[in-house]
Amino acid sequence: MKKISRASHLLIILSCMLALGCSKKAPEASAEAAATEPTPAATAPAPTPTANKVEPIEVEPTAEQREQEKKKALMDYAKMEDQYLNDTKAQWASSGKASSTFGDEGSSGASPYNMATNVKGGVDGKSWTNGHQDIGFDWLEVNYDKPVSATEVRIVFDDGKGVESVNKIELQSVDGKWNTVWEGISDQKADKRGNRTWFVRSFEKTAYKVKSVKVTIANNLERGYKEIDAVQLVGE
Ligand SMILES: [Ca+2]
After folding, report:
1. What CATH code is carried by the domain that includes residue 212?
2. How many CB atoms lie within 10 A of CB 213?
């Protein structure tokens, strides 16, 4: 019995040693396996020689080419504006009023030259000029003869003056309710291609019929007086 137990004891020690040996060898084996695995560097394609690479030569445009580019930009503007002006789904305001007018705080009051009534009708070079350069907010409200389900509003700024200050566009339904269709910080810059800058905002077609549009401007966003010539309402 003693022999057997000694033998089994030996067996246990042996198997333990074997297990240890195996477990000790295991990392070595995996290290060997790792060593035989190809390294990414070895398989990476050899860098192509740069000596033979042909660099594109940048050619300065000639004065004539620059002039052509300028003409093309003017033509693009002409086409854009022509589309707006002849848009059969667009109508011009029939009347307008505003929160302030240039000169209205003076003793003689605002000149007709700057009044909100100048936004009535199409683009004609006569504009509403607001009364503040950098303080507070101003608004312009315009009315339309034919109420429509609206999809877009286009505000025409004379020389782009004030286009960066547009802050909100609201539409009034025929039952008198005001709805904000856009509010934010204007990303529009003065359009240098033409004498007018069109501030255009599209939105989902309104379920209600629109009769008036109110444009709010944040005076401090673009310092100086703002000039709006006309406001188009698009819809049917
Ligand atoms: Ca006008």
Report:
1. 2.60.120.260
2. 23
